[in-house]
Specification:
three-stranded antiparallel beta sheet; globular; five-stranded antiparallel beta sheet; alpha+beta; 8 strands
Length: 207
């Protein structure tokens, strides 16, 4: 089956994290054949992908709104700091008969990567100043980020914000789909439907 990751804009200039990702792909998972596609508008694509966390898993109205607000915090973080930076989709094949187990192992790998290259980086917290003007009943793709006013606090990695009005921005380098075959397929379909997988976006390397 097809599997993919998205190398987010915050990993592109981190050569050590990129090297760790690709070496593990090769030596831990035996994946040498993969294809990279440039994603010029990661913010928009992230809205579509993250909306699946809402529409597929939640049915309580208040829970849906809270989840969208949480996801919007990170989307806004990338919009503010990486608006004009590309992300990259890395697509490759995994064995159908072992797909479930491989997806579980990728989930472990995700945690290893973030522990090594995200955990000890600066923390950013965001507060939406005009939250009452945002309709969280709308899908994330319908929320206009240009109309949102924000305030951001930053801390060294060993400190945290104690202000409950600020939510953490998760700059976590790589997007790994949930370890669920159907979820992986849904996300790949979104990427295909939005023109990411095309000859025009094909790239040879990012490292």
């Amino acid at each position: 089956m097809e599997m993919f990751n998205i190398l987010k804009p915050d990993i592109i200039n981190d050569e050590k994290a990129l090297e760790f990702y690709f070496k593990n792909l090769q030596y831990k998972f035996g994946i040498n054949d993969y294809t990279l596609y440039r994603i010029d508008d990661w913010v928009y694509i992230s809205k579509l992908i993250y909306e699946l966390d809402v529409s597929n898993k939640l049915d309580n109205v208040e829970t849906v709104r809270a989840k969208r607000k949480q996801l919007l915090t990170t989307i806004l973080g990338y919009y503010i700091y990486y608006k004009n930076k590309s992300a990259f989709m890395n697509i490759y094949k995994i064995a159908d008969e072992n797909a479930f187990q491989i997806l579980k192992e990728f989930n472990v790998f995700k945690k290893e990567l973030r522990k090594k290259y995200v955990l000890k980086t600066a923390k950013y917290y965001l507060k939406i100043l005009n939250e009452d003007e945002i309709d969280f009943d709308l899908p994330l793709k319908c929320i206009n980020l240009d109309n949102i006013q924000t305030e951001i606090l930053s801390f060294p990695y060993w400190e945290e914000s104690s202000n409950p009005k600020y939510n953490m921005i998760f700059f976590n380098k790589v997007h790994f789909p949930d370890p669920n075959i159907e979820e992986v397929r849904k996300e790949i379909n979104i990427l295909r439907e939005n023109g990411v997988v095309s000859k025009n976006n094909l790239v040879r390397r990012v490292l």
